Amino acid sequence: MRWQRLVHYAASMIGGFWGGYTIFNHTDIFGNAQTGNLIKMVLNTVEGDFTFVGWMFLSFLVYAAGNVFYVLVRRRATVSMKIISLFCSSAAVVLTGAVAHVAPNDFVACYPLIFAAPVQWNAYKIANGNSSSTIFSSNNVRQAVMLTTNFVLSRNRHTGAKAGFYWLTLLSFHIGVALSCAVSLLVGVQSIWLCFVPILLTAAAYFVYQNEKLRVAALVNA
After folding, report:
1. How many structural domains does the chain have?
2. Angle at the Cα of 193 from the Cα atoms of 134 and 138, rounded to 5 degrees
3. Strand intervals (E) in the chain
């Protein structure tokens, strides 16, 4: 269970890195989710900036395509979707890094990350029975605050442990944000390459987690 949580925290660092990177380097585009982007699309429709609206609508389609990709691949995959998500994340980082300096606008460089974000969200949406996003924070804040309030009122240790899980997920996410922003100050859009640090941490934690599962299964069956 401990390693399952560590996998989730490491994946949250990837999500935080993407969020910080896209907002810091690409005109406040939040590549991880669509709420703010869809609001911007409506606002720019009202303002008559239809070029911007077109790019935002395309980002919506790319995000939707990431979800379609997950559903289709999951039906056929013979390996964990967590592993496939890590490959997808790695490919997105490479594509973003490759086109960031030559892209005609900020949207094009973000599209690979926009595609990969829902793949990661679906692949890492549950840890220790807790439903938790690794690519944005709204529900994690809600869960952390409500569970902490219930813990203060009830002193139930299980509730306290669940609250701790969500607080640590939020901390991990924002460590990723801080890392991306700090490096962006130094190298700008090419800071995306440092995202391989949390990707490799997630892969390592997942590898240990799987080995621990096999070890425990062997002990149970011995």
Report:
1. 1
2. 20
3. 126-127, 130-131
